[in-house]
Structures are given as structure tokens and as C-alpha cells.
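Course assignment 3, question 2. Fill in each field.
Student: A.L.
Task: Predict the tertiary structure for the chain below.
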Amino acid sequence: MTWQQEIDEAVYLERERANAAERRADEAESRADKAESRADEAKRRADRYEKILREHGLL
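Answer field:
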């Protein structure tokens, strides 16, 4: 293998690692967004239940 081939292979492998890291970061961000959405929905439900209980004089 020539030195140019070694360099090309090293560059290729480094780019692959960078792409994989970027995919993992994107997946983590997606999971975080979904978790935030679930938390927001839970807060809306809690607010709705609180409103209902206050309207009925239970709080």
C-alpha cells in the first residue's frame, strides 16, 4: 500500500467516524425532543385536571 492509499484510508475512516457520531447525536436529539413532548403533554393534562378540580371546589 502506498503512502497516498494509507492517507486516503485514514481520511475515509475518520469521516466515517464523524458521520457515525453525527448520526448518534441526531438520534439523541430526537429522543430528547420526544421526551420533552411527553413531558409537555403530561403538564397539560395536570393543568386540565387541576382546572376541573378547582371548578368543582375540590381544590
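Instructor remarks: The two ends are 78 Å apart (CA to CA). Residues 1 and 7 are 10 Å apart (CA to CA).
Grade: pending
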